[in-house]
Amino acid sequence: MALKDLLIVGDGFSAAVALIHLLRQGVDTQSIAILGMHSPGRGNAYGCTSPAFRLNVREDLPIIFSEDPLHFAKWANEHIKDPQAKTSAGHFYRRGDFGVYMNQLVHDQLDGRALNHIQGVAQRITGSDGHWRVELKTGEHIDAKAMILATGNPTPTWPCPVQIEQIFSNLTLTENPWPSDYLRRIPAKDHVLLLGGGLTALDAINGLVEQGHQGKVSVISPRALFPPSQAPWVRTKQPQWPNPITPACLVGFMRHYLPNIPTDQSEWQCAWEELRPDLNRIWQGFNAHQRRILMKRFGWLWNLYRFRASPQTIAAYQKLRDQQQIEFRCGRAKAIAVRDGAIHVTLSQGEVVHGHHLINCTGVARDRLLDQLISDAIASPDVLKSSITIDPQFNVLNPKGKAYQSLWMIGPATMGSLGDVIAASAIAKQAEQLAKAIRLNWMPSSSVQ
Ligand SMILES: Cc1cc2nc3c(=O)[nH]c(=O)nc-3n(C[C@H](O)[C@H](O)[C@H](O)COP(=O)(O)OP(=O)(O)OC[C@H]3O[C@@H](n4cnc5c(N)ncnc54)[C@H](O)[C@@H]3O)c2cc1C
Fold it and tell me: Which of 29, 133, 216, 278 has its CA 20 to 30 A from that of 335?
């Protein structure tokens, strides 16, 4: 394949917003190529087909264009027919419909120009500044002068060994539930086991309730707790953070700032959202040791409250709870076995939970491509040891801490380096900044229209 000027690795939301903002900056379509198996924009988050999988934020929050923050809200009002989206906390649209929006934005931005979309999966990256090579699973390779890594959320893998001793056609094991197709394989009266108690488990619950599930649902999770429902919230105050600030000060200040009321109350969520915009700056000011301590002690709490669920999804959970159809089984799965006509999940304390369908809701796995960059000494692990290190301008750092000038990364994998960068609007902001920097500092003038 011919040498590419700029290759975007990945085809999800991050890749699509990078493409959109590069084109808006006037970068020539012909100098950009995208690598991935699907049409850009949907990815793991918005490629689901179930109408029960909803955005966990109201309609004004996924901001793609900083100068037009209500672009999605207006588009949704005009194009999406979904009367159930409306709640007292705002409109919570289906994730699949947001995927349609993203596809449409890419289409509109291309304005009839062809996109160089290479079908394939990158399995190895080699090279150095200005000369990168991506090896595909098929054995082919792509050479590029510069690259943006946008591989996103690696799909979930089982957290413990799975032993299938016998095959039973009525039992199902779903390792990656994000596409949502497993729901149609679950008969209404069967016993469903959800491994994990976060937003993916809540998606499954909403999906089951929408299809009239009557059987039992067991949630296997270390804590008998789900993220709270979104309430109506607005930011009215600006917190006066202590200066200088340590991790202990940060936690103390947040505790004091948050009212002592349930987390699904508006007042609590207003305060939480007032704290949030400053957290990335504060995170970036901490050293590696401080970041690790903070995540070790408060990571689970942070993850619980950072992610809130749509009101529709929490209503589905409450319905199952009121019908006494759902239970928590506290613990961590240690082994999974299929035998004697059932799925058996053994928990760390020895207890065994049985059911007909097991859905893995344990969250993201490791990104093998990023691991390869670390093992080949092209990049270095981030402080959380879950991704690679980048600088605040999104440049990937080599193991000596020097920034590459032609290798960038955006999306959820930047969290260890930059902080709370999971939500669509945070990633879109990264893409907007990166596109401007690439246009100004890197793209040869012949590649800019
Ligand atoms: C299930 C789920 C639901 C979410 N819901 C919300 C929500 O409601 N609101 C919100 O604000 N945020 C939500 N998020 C947060 C989400 O992280 C971001 O919104 C965003 O979707 C991340 O996009 P991405 O492209 O970086 O990652 P992904 O969506 O994971 O997409 C990455 C894409 O790159 C491809 N890819 C990966 N590796 C390679 C490779 N080696 N070669 C080629 N292609 C590759 C994948 O196949 C995939 O298509 C959700 C995330 C998930 C996982």
Answer: 216
